[in-house]
Amino acid sequence: MKKRILGSIKRKGLVISLACSLAIAAAFGAGAGSVSAGKVTAASVKAKNAKAHKAYKKKMSSIAKASMDCSYKYVDITGDGIHEALVSANVGRDFYIFTYKGGKAKKILTGGDYGLSKITIYKGSKGIITYGGGHGGETYSYYKKKGSSYKKVASRSRQSVNGGGMSNGPWYYYNGKSGSINKAAFNKNIKGISKGKKSTINTINWKMVR
Length: 210
Known about the structure:
The chain is of the alpha+beta class. The protein contains two helices and twelve strands, in the order H-E-E-E-E-E-E-E-E-E-E-H-E-E.
């Protein structure tokens, strides 16, 4: 009887030992796989960005041919690791954002203000505010993502008064189609855009499209 019990205990111990060994091996194997998967993901993102840049350059070359100036910067707006292309042309009067989708460069924002110098991006609220100024005036334009692209929802502008600086005149407010509105309607249109963390990008030292 004692021999049987001891034999049974030994067999159970062996089974438990084997189970533990398999669990440990699986754990290490999963870890190795995760590292490998991480490397593959990083490599695939790098490769996809290279393809995206190539597609963007085709679009930018076309814009540059029809513009007196054209500059750009690559920025990840969506947070997926793949760059978008921010493009400014004609002294900021034309501003575009392209994203890479389905192997092609797709335009997701069309706008622009004279002397465009600053773009503020709010990833959480999916909002973008652009600023342009020069020749005695300044403009802020507000964009909100609707569906797969950004739509202009409002803007505000002012001009110098009596030969003063850009910031001494009264504000004038507009809807997304440049129609005049009052301040209350303007505030309603831009509600929620500037919430959460933001990243501000200056257009200084953007690369020129040759």
